Amino acid sequence: MEEIYSILMMVGTFVLAISGALTAMERKFDVFGVFIIAFVTSIGGGTLRDILIGKDVFWIFDPTYPYIIMGGSIFALVFNKCLEYLRSTLLVFDTVGLALFTILGAEIGLSYDLNMLSCVILATITGVVGGVLRDVLVNEVPVIFRKEIYATISIAGASLYLLLKLYNVGYYITELVPVLFIIILRFIVVRYKISLPGIYKKI
Amino acid sequence: MEEIYSILMMVGTFVLAISGALTAMERKFDVFGVFIIAFVTSIGGGTLRDILIGKDVFWIFDPTYPYIIMGGSIFALVFNKCLEYLRSTLLVFDTVGLALFTILGAEIGLSYDLNMLSCVILATITGVVGGVLRDVLVNEVPVIFRKEIYATISIAGASLYLLLKLYNVGYYITELVPVLFIIILRFIVVRYKISLPGIYKKI
Amino acid sequence: MEEIYSILMMVGTFVLAISGALTAMERKFDVFGVFIIAFVTSIGGGTLRDILIGKDVFWIFDPTYPYIIMGGSIFALVFNKCLEYLRSTLLVFDTVGLALFTILGAEIGLSYDLNMLSCVILATITGVVGGVLRDVLVNEVPVIFRKEIYATISIAGASLYLLLKLYNVGYYITELVPVLFIIILRFIVVRYKISLPGIYKKI
């Protein structure tokens, strides 16, 4: 159990570092700017989660994560040069990070005996806050509030995970299905440009 | 005492959720965007307060608040359709939330034996941070720094509360007068377009 | 040791309060807006540092810092009127604050037995977060991501400090040289308009 936490966390950290680095490169930030945006994008959600539940912040006493983020940033720098479709690459990494961190957040919520609603909120925070900070720092309206119903997918995935947990289906199904669910759902939404209805001002 | 805390907190949460939801609706966010902005607006100040004084974050282990926020968001959705003057409605809910959370912050500061200056700062943080986060997330210069001397009113209300507490006037006066003071002061300021002098650059 | 912490912290708080106040005055914020931006700029980095390592937030139980910030704000108001070159004044205070807080962050990291990489990160957070918050609040792309390789200098200074500590050179050299290194490096960078290479998108 502890082990799957660590693996989820490391892979999620790596892919979100790439997502952050690609965004920073698009804005022509310098190399340290790229590293800082990668750092904030990948540890932002988990850091807020740990502060909220009063847990030691996961990367402070363990240098593994900063090293993974450095690795992700360097990977993005190299990757960038071979690739022509930055936008869609960004989407892939961002989506995998969203899926892994959402489920990780829900797991940690359960392990702290939080109620279901708080688990969903914690899962969503873990999944989306890094991307929100990234967007606030580069001074955009966060992606979460634009299209692609980003947060909605995270909420749906976390709810599915808690449901599978509740009905006690097999271990691997509980861990894998919600992750795949989030990834596939996001690609469908982006591909077919689905969006939730806004509630327009009547005046 | 504990009881009045809870009531202040619940009513404040409800009205600030409405304020956040109305802002998000004005920007044509989708339904989950509306809920998230409502959530951040109403728990932002209290969350930062609890983190700063090292207290358990109030909504993590208690699902009451997230449910109240859902209620406020739904209320805003329905309310929105009957109303023509969104701007002034927003002002009412925002102001009541500012007043309730400011006094709540001052009370919690006192109960932690903080000095007067820290109590005022904690009160102001509790009162205004939710609104600041809301504005940062929708990518505006926060309302606090524009007109309507928002934070100034919060500081004045908190100081009045601490003064009444110091001179030990009756319980209900101490609780109610500063709340009304903040609400009335803000309406006067908005009505007569009062603003503090800026300090203009001489060059 | 404790003593030099306090002195670094107080001087750093004072100069960053001035830097924040000058920025707010340039934007024609009202007097409380000036104080709030001064407050956030000078305590932002240290507050995040203390929250991350689970330490009591330094200014909550000790009113010294809020008073120093008030002093810095008032100093900036007076200073402003005698000065014609606001931009370069802002640079001086911002740079001294960056230097002092960076070294302070590294020291506190060491005193918590953090590994070297986390010390550098903590030092950089302490040094730059106040300025980032200031810029986000006034709705700009943070200075850190524009030119003048702000964060890079902080990282270099923190690394130099840890190196000197490791090789156990004299106490005063360890404390003073990295501070001067950061200040001089920033002035050179600004004077000769040096910037790190961006990694441009190839598409």
Number of helices of chain A: 7
Structural class from helices and strands of chain A?
mainly alpha
What composes the largest sheet of chain A? Answer: none
DSSP strand content of chain A: under 5%
Instruction: Tell me the overall shape of chain A.
Output: globular
Distance between the termini of chain A: 53 Å
Low-confidence stretches of chain A: 199-203
Provide the helix percentage of chain A: over 70%
Beta strands of chain A, count: 0
Cα gyration radius of chain A (Å):
17 Å
Biggest interface reads: A-B, 32 and 34 residues
Secondary-structure element series of chain A = HHHHHHH
Number of domains of chain A: 1
Question: Regarding quaternary structure, how should these chains be classified?
Answer: homotrimer
Mean of residue pLDDT values of chain A:
83
